[in-house]
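#struct-help
A.M.: can someone run this one for me? Single chain, 140 residues.
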Amino acid sequence: MRIDDMFPETGVLPAVAVVFVVALALEMTGVWLMMLVAGAFAALFTRRAIASFLAGATGVGMAWLAIFVYLIATAHALEVAEFFAGLLGLTGAGTAVIAVSVLIGSLLGGCGAFRTRLLIEVWDSSESTTAEDLAHQDRG
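D.P.: on it. Structure tokens below:
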């Protein structure tokens, strides 16, 4: 069965919303590589690789930004970022550290979505070929 037949095509904005929620949930695991999995959900609801990338990158980026905003407000994350920037000799660049972190998260989500969309395309094309081959064998 084709993967694209199992999931409806919703477009980019609903895919961003799904990725945002999944990324927030997976962020609680503490494993940053899970953002590849969160981004993969965008590929299930979009049908083009670039749309999948954009939805995955935007959803994960928004989730990371929301988490950083929450941590800045409640856990002094900006001071921690300033400390790490100071270790690199970049005094006062805590906001830049957070911005780079959000960018890295966005790229993880986008790459996970892009990779998954291409894998779905390969799987679905092999499924179509297999079904055609079986139909041809039955006739012959």
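A.M.: thanks! The CA atoms of residues 26 and 34 lie 6 Å apart.
D.P.: also worth noting: The first helix runs from residue 3 to 6.
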